[in-house]
Amino acid sequence: MIAAGGQSRGVVGAMLPLVLAAVLHQSLATVAPPTPAQTTAAPHKDPGRPERGTYNVTNANNTVCLLAYMGLQLNLTYNATSQNTAVQEVVNIKPNVTLASGSCEAERAVLELKTDANATVLTFVFTLNSTSSKYHLSEVSLTTTVPDLKGGKFSARNSSLDFLQGSLQYSYMCRTEQTLTVTQNLSINTFQVQLQPFGVTGDKFGAAVECQLDEDDMLIPIIVGAALAGLVLVVLLAYLIGRKRSHAGYQTI
């Protein structure tokens, strides 16, 4: 004589580890970061995470018209004369040796960062659409000294960008690291960005609107948690059904 309820509970107990393993495997596969693109350039040493800097621009009335608080990292690709091959160099912008300047107009704001006695000049241009009251990063240019490059100067510029989109009177915020591709030879990693190029009141940021990347990062644990909660509910229902059947009697072999 074998109890039918014992068989049901045994099946549920055997399936539980397999179902949990399957769900966890699927969850990890969902949140796994994408594989970075391959490159033939030889990478230099990673300088680590850059320090966040506060960069302000004032207008003719000596009032703040642009605010930025962010960490910046340059990714340069160039042909090194000493190695006769393409190399990648990663350079952190250091706030303690960086001077901020620029200009503010009705629909155009410029943030210029100069470091190391003007050896590096990084310029951001923001454009405001007065019809939609939306702004974005529309142009980036860079000139910097690279001793191992023929001529000793690296330069890049792109005036048709569409990054860091925000709304007038609000600041743009993105805690997630982003990579802004400027040209084939230049990209910029941004870290914990908060900026406001238009509609600044006083010297403080307006209410922040978070980027899509931050919202996606918040959704992932919610989705995983909901999936696990659903799994627990299914297993609990299977267990209760098994217990109910166990009271129906015994099966004769």
TrEMBL record:
Q: Which residues cross the membrane?
A: 218-241
What InterPro entries does its record include?
Lamp2-like_luminal (IPR048528), Lamp2-like_TM (IPR048524), LAMP_CS (IPR018134), Lysosome-assoc_membr_glycop (IPR002000)
The chain positions of domain Lysosome-associated membrane glycoprotein 2-like luminal read 50-200
Q: What Pfam families does this protein map onto? A: Lamp2-like_luminal, Lamp2_2nd
Q: Where is the composition biased (Basic and acidic residues)?
A: 43-52
- Family per UniProt? Belongs to the LAMP family.
Compartmental location: Cell membrane; Cytolytic granule membrane; Late endosome membrane; Lysosome membrane
What is the protein's membrane topology class? Single-pass type I membrane protein
Tell me, in one coarse class, where this protein mainly resides. membrane
Please report the stretch or stretches of sequence annotated as the Lysosome-associated membrane glycoprotein 2-like transmembrane domain.
220-251
- What's the protein called, per UniProt? Lysosome-associated membrane glycoprotein 1
List cystine links.
Answer: 174-211
Record's keyword terms, sorted = Cell membrane, Disulfide bond, Endosome, Glycoprotein, Lysosome, Membrane, Signal, Transmembrane, Transmembrane helix
Signal sequence segment: 1-29
Query: What GO cellular component term, any one, is given?
Result: plasma membrane
Region Disordered, as annotated, extends over: 33-56
Keyword Transmembrane tagged: yes
Please cite one Gene Ontology biological process associated with this protein.
establishment of protein localization to organelle
Q: Where is the composition biased (Low complexity)?
A: 33-42
